[in-house]
Amino acid sequence: MKKVLITGGCGFIGSHTIVDLIEKGYSVLSIDDFSNSHRQVLNAIKKITGQRVQNIEIDLKDAQATAEAFEKFGPFDGIIHFAAYKSVGESVDDPFRYYRNNIYSLINVAEAAVKRGVDRFIFSSSCTVYGDPKEIPVTEDSPLLSASSPYGLTKQVGEKILMDLASTKPGFKAVLLRYFNPAGAHRSALLGEASLRPSTNLVPIICEVASGKRQKLTVYGTDYPTRDGSCVRDYIHIEDLAKAHTGALEYLLDNKPSNQVEVFNLGIGEGITVLEATKAFERVTGLKLNYEIGTRRPGDVPAIFSHYKKAKRVLNWNPKLNIDDIMRTAWNWEQKRF
Ligand code: WQD
Questions:
Q1: Is 99 designated active site?
Q2: Whose CA is nearest to atom 27 of ligand 1?
Q3: Ligand 1 in reach of 88 Cβ (< 6 A)
């Protein structure tokens, strides 16, 4: 049985990927310091899969603790490195917290991987590496423009670190997965987005407004050059996104990559505006959302979405869920969440 290390395994994408990996027969170990994830996630994974996943609670910014964890709990056939903070808006307000957390943890995990001979590495990257694209949909060959937020910069730096590492280690192979907007929740409603810090992302905020946890949604700007003036994003269901990771891992472990580093855009190729997303929630739930139009949020780009031709061709990835499925599962989770 192949053993995979999942850093940030108790986070939103990490936890859903662990569920898919277990269902596909992998053995997983999680490292998560719970700085922005909920301890109940491990119970939820047990309820869904029947398996109690071991989580090592260390801070990956601590190089020694990271190296010791690799030595004590390895060897690993592969690593999926999720551990990072991921809010565009929050990174603008607190850049050094993002630089320190996202870059130090990657350096320590990559260095420990090399020292312990783990040479199959999947990196949780982001569409924010494209900055404010001149042409959409973006492809994996689109230029990496100036990042529009410190969060996006940490992902650009992370990709470059792994590309440099691959250039010096012939056996090292990496897949960089550039996510668009992950959202939704597990179909069981036992698992979903459960950040400890207040969410800054649109879909969880919509759900919190609908449940009364938040008074209202502020739409950050309707004066953008888009079809209804609000920003366009490519929302991808978390269960489709999890499947892409298992596909990328199989691709690496079956030694299929011809290049040492392969990049995949993980979007579904549908641009949805903020106002359209809000209407999708109202349509799916039958609830009326209390929202106001506010000013633009620093760090936002007007529009970005991607097709997934390369992930479909190479990883045989076929996303099946849409914005209505995202809103339905997110709302089910919001009503049952821990
Ligand atoms: C989406 C749109 C906001 C909240 C996310 C992840 C990031 C990366 C890219 C993976 C924007 C608007 C939001 C609100 C609003 N994914 N909005 N009112 O910034 O696109 O980034 O996807 O790496 O990790 O954070 O997502 O959900 O914050 O914003 O109007 O209260 O919704 O302005 O246009 P974003 P988001």
A1: no
A2: 201
A3: yes
- Ligand 1, atom 23, lies closest to the CA of 126
Residue 177 near ligand 1, beta carbon < 6 Å:
no
Q: Does ligand 1 have an atom closer than 6 angstroms to the CB of 263?
A: no
Residue range 192-235, pLDDT digits in tens: 998 888 899 999 999 999 999 999 999 999 999 999 999 999 99
Probe residue for ligand 1, chosen from 127, 159, 177, 181 as the CB with the greatest number of ligand atoms within 8 Å: 181
Nearest CA to ligand 1 atom 19: 88
Using only C-alpha atoms, the chain has a radius of gyration, in whole angstroms, of 19
The residue with tokens 């996510």 is 179
Q: Which CATH class for the 3-186+235-267+307-315 domain?
A: alpha beta
Q: How many Å lie between the centroid of ligand 1 and the Cα of residue 202? A: 6
Q: What is the dihedral of CA 30, 33, 36, 39, to 10 degrees?
A: 70
Give me the residue label for tokens 């993002």: 98
pTM score: 0.97
Kindly state if the Cβ of 233 falls inside 6 Å of ligand 1: yes
pLDDT digit string, tens, across residues 241-275: 999 999 999 999 998 878 999 999 999 998 999 99
Q: Is 202 in the pocket of ligand 1 (CB under 6 A)?
A: yes
